[in-house]
């Protein structure tokens, strides 16, 4: 593209010629989307494959953040609950793990 930039002031106006070319933007693709995982027992971690790709015309910069706490609140079942302290008190199993590649 080409254009002119005019600087108006109390002296003589100045005209600056402008030109430039644009580049195509990055285009992110995430698979699977949404990312869904299920656990069959109270385990410490689970691995789920996630693919992030860029089909755009420029470099893609991204950051993976995990800011939410995840918890299970088991009450009964096949010995799936946690008992801690006085009778009838169940604890929540809270997990937080940073994402890493």
Could you explain how this protein is built, in words?
- The protein contains no helices and six strands.
- It has strands spanning 2-7, 14-19, 28-31, 51-54, 70-72, 93-95.
- The protein has 101 residues and is mainly β.
- The strands form three sheets. The chain has a two-stranded antiparallel sheet with strand order 1-2. A two-stranded antiparallel ribbon has the order 3-4. Strands 5-6 form a two-stranded antiparallel sheet.
User: Helical content, roughly?
Assistant: under 10%
Given as residue ranges, the uncertain stretches (5+ residues, pLDDT < 50) are 87-101
Give the amount of beta strand, in percent.
25-35%
What is the CA-based Rg, rounded? 28 Å
Distance between the termini: 40 Å
SS elements, strand count: 6
- Numbering strands along the chain, what is their spatial order in the largest sheet? 1-2
Question: Could you spell the SSE succession in H and E letters?
Answer: EEEEEE
Main sheet: strands, sense, barrel = 2 strands, antiparallel
What is the tally of helical segments? 0
Mean pLDDT: 73
Shape: elongated
């Amino acid at each position: 593209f080409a254009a002119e930039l005019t600087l108006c002031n109390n002296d003589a106006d100045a005209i600056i010629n402008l030109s430039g070319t644009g580049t195509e933007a990055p285009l992110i693709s995430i698979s699977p989307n949404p990312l869904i995982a299920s656990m069959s027992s109270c385990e410490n971690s689970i691995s789920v494959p996630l693919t992030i790709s860029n089909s755009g015309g420029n470099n893609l910069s991204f950051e993976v953040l995990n800011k939410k706490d995840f918890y299970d609140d088991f009450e009964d079942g096949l010995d799936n609950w946690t008992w801690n302290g006085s009778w009838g008190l169940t604890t929540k199993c809270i997990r937080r793990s940073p994402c890493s590649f």
